[in-house]
Automatic annotation (TrEMBL):
The keyword Metal-binding does not apply. Gene3D superfamilies: Helical domain of apoptotic protease-activating factors. It comes from Theobroma cacao (Cacao). GO terms for biological process: defense response. GO terms for molecular function: ADP binding. This is Disease resistance protein.
Length: 139
């Protein structure tokens, strides 16, 4: 009930997530607003996915914090970015990740810049060209 899945149902449920209200309206969905994660929860989720061993590198901490901030409290962005940085302790790689995330994307209408930046980061860090192609087909 709380997240919009009424009881009883026939066993099938469809949950649509979007940052664009027009999508919900077009599909006739029941709108349930989910706020972004508070800073502390975002940090905890990031650490859970990247691994707490990152805390053992004091030189990395300010950069890691900046990367978490770039994720703007969006759980999918946090999980994706943290997973792609798991096991990386090189300060230069972390700086590169931070810089990639902070790039500005212009000329795209109807899409939140932060979301697009994180999608671009995710795409760029897919290991194989075939997987990138699959990502584009799904998009």
């Amino acid at each position: 009930e709380e997240v919009g899945i009424p009881q009883p149902s026939n066993g099938s449920k469809l949950v649509v997530t979007t940052r664009m209200l027009d999508v919900c309206r077009y599909l006739g969905c029941r709108e349930i607003r989910m706020p972004t994660l508070p800073k502390q929860d975002a940090w905890s989720l990031f650490l859970e996915k990247v691994g707490k061993d990152v805390l053992n590198y004091p030189d990395l901490l300010p950069i890691v914090e900046s990367v978490v901030e770039q994720c703007a409290g969006l759980p999918l962005a946090i999980v994706t970015v943290a997973s792609s940085m798991k096991g990386i302790t090189n300060v230069h790689e972390w700086r590169n990740a931070r810089n990639e995330l902070s790039r500005r994307v212009r000329g795209v209408t109807g899409l939140d810049e932060k979301v697009l930046e994180q999608l671009q980061f995710s795409y760029d860090h897919l290991e194989y060209e075939r997987v990138q192609h699959c990502f584009l087909c799904c998009a």
